[in-house]
Amino acid sequence: MKQTAAIKHLLPLVKLYPWAIPTIVFLGVLSSVFEGLGISLFIPVLQTLLQETPQSTNQSPLLQGLFQLLQGIPAQERLWMLPAGIFGCILIKNGLSYTNTVISAWFNSRISHRLRSQVFEQLLSVSYSYLEVQDSGRLMNTLASETWRTSQAISVMISLITTLCTTIVYTLLLLLISWPLTLLIGVVMGIISLIIQFVTRRIKSIGQQAVQANADLGVRMYEGLIGMRTIRSFGREGYEQQQFDRASQKVRKTLLKVDMLSGTVQPLYEILSALLVLSILVLAVLHDRSSLPTLLTFLFMLYRLQPQMQQIDGYRASLQSLSSSIDDVLMFLDRSNKPYLQSGTVPFQKLQERIVLDGVSFRYSAQDQPALNGISLTIPAGKTTALVGPSGAGKSTLINLICRFHDPTTGQIWVDDQPLQDLDLSTWRERMAIVSQDIHVFNATIAENIAYGRLDATPAEIIAAAKQANAHEFISQLPAGYDTPVGDRGIRLSGGQRQRLALARAIVRNPHILILDEATNALDSISEYLIQEALELFSQDRTVIVVAHRFSTIEHADQIVVLEGGTIVEQGTLDRLLPRGGLFTKMYQLQNRTLKR
Predict the structure, then answer these.
(1) What is the Cα–Cα distance from 452 to 51, expressed in whole angstroms?
(2) Euclidean distance between CA atoms 556 and 384, whole angstroms
(3) For residue 171, what are the CA distances in angstroms to 21, 159, 185, 549?
(4) Do the Cβ atoms of 83 and 45 come closer than 8 Å?
């Protein structure tokens, strides 16, 4: 059954705290025992009030035990001792229930936190190639919504197990009071349960539709937020509103279907159970009026059992509706079908001699054309290497391989005669800093964004890095200086300011290898000059790899590597490449002609 499969999938998550569920179930059962005992005491109370003498013959074992217990107590004392016993059972039952609630809340909050943490850890550890082909909105929906729904499923599972145990306790008490009536009611309750299952059988498929609808809405929200500038510049507010409303309506309709089907459980149970209880009461009273106290107690206990039975089907329906969320989260957490970059074990200290690419080729997928094809290149330590070429030549792919966001499809990358795959990944990247055109600025303060390059940087080091990046002047003019929040994705800063902030982040890191991936392409002349001036000072005695379309930024490079179609077509210094009349010369002349115009 679908709910059984959902519970099976959830069990690995709850094994982190193996004592929790047995404790919760034990407290729930013990609470039910005291409640059942309190209800059972109503039989002698009612008989005392009616001044009837209980007959121990042909009575159930439970009733015989109660009567024997009360034989030595005078009738006048029973009127206060029995209510006191009932009240005591109620106190103990509610104390146990509250303790159970606290432990359940603690357990569920722990599991929920760990689940969210595991999903985020998966995002951080899975290969970047996997994330590149995934829908960002769906990933965000998995992290934000489906983890919450999965933790909700864990809570439902615990409640289901506890309620099942409680139902067993009540059923045993009912059997002890009157086993023929209990068997009759059990058959009828089973029929009612089958009716409920028949009515709610479509919840699973609708739950899957709800997950997909939520994912689509997540995409619309994500695209709307990050693309707000483009939306407004093209005047597409109305179009985007229609797209969002369509996705939101789909979520509304699917969740409404789930709620409507889930909502049928309670009224059906109420109506059918009320009919059952009233029928038993009328028939029993007509048959034997002397059994009225026992019958009333039986019906009262049955009345307390009925919500438990109702909750069981409600929990089962909820697990069915949440099973798609469970599948979504667990499939994302499954490590067997996703690529991972395994870190090496050799700590990286400093680049002493060179980075060598030996016959490196790379495909993003088996169906794609090679982004790089047989690249052999030496990048000397302490020198500046420039990568140029038309769009799609493979420049950014080469950078991704050096940063080890991907591993080569074929060939090998060597770092001082050590395979890159053998190096400890964290220490390799710690000695590296990247400044790119599409820089990410966090929704934090100026100081926090700069210190992201080195989390233990002091305020003095942050200011010094900002000065070296020509960023201190504009930062000082901000309302709160270095404590000024920059907004989501640095929306309160200009492009040149974000770029200088990114450069300050790289400077405070003090890297051995500096990668500039088209860092000044989208900037105005003044911003480009300020950043170039800062880079010239900062690049001294460092290994610098520059990807640039503006050749003014690479005129002093120690070597220029020209890429086209994923292969190296030219290589040398500016003075040597220009006279050759090759691709570099054509690109250089075309850019100079454009600038003169």
Answers:
(1) 82
(2) 8
(3) 22, 18, 10, 79
(4) yes
In whole angstroms, give the CA distance from residue 126 to residue 135: 15
Nearest to 178 by CA among 30, 54, 46, 302: 302
Is the CB of residue 517 less than 8 Å from the CB of residue 525?
Answer: no
Angle between helices 237-263 and 292-333 (to 10 degrees): 150
CB-count exposure of residue 227 (10 Å: 0-12, 13-18, 19+): middle
The alpha carbon torsion through 580, 583, 589, 593 (nearest 10 deg) reads 160
The pLDDT tens digits of the residues spanning 333-365 come to 888 888 888 888 999 988 888 999 999 999 887
CB 315, CB 152: distance < 8 Å: no
Look up residue 445 and give its two tokens.
């303060």
Characterize the bridge pairing of strands 543-547 and 354-362: unpaired
What's this model's pTM, rounded to 2 decimal places? 0.69
Question: How far, in Å, CA of 359 to CA of 568, rounded?
Answer: 11
* Cβ atoms of 189 and 280 closer than 8 Å: no
Q: Evaluate whether 502 touches 533 at the Cβ level (below 8 Å).
A: no
- Tell me the pLDDT tens digit for each residue of 524-570: 565 566 667 767 777 777 898 988 777 777 777 889 999 998 999 99
The pLDDT of residue 145 is 80
57 pLDDT above the threshold of 50: no
Do 506 and 464 meet the contact criterion of CB atoms below 8 Å apart?
no
**Lookup result for tokens 């998966």:** 122
313 residue type, one letter: D
Helix axes 292-333, 179-199, angle to 10 degrees: 40
Q: Which one, of 256, 251, 248, 171, lies nearest residue 211 by Cα? A: 251
**Across the strands, what pairs with 445?**
485
**Contact (Cβ atoms closer than 8 angstroms) between residue 317 and residue 265:** yes
Cβ neighbours of residue 220 closer than 8 Å, sequence gap 6 or more: 137, 243, 244, 247, 248
Max Cα-Cα span within the chain: 121
d(CA 377, CA 346): 23
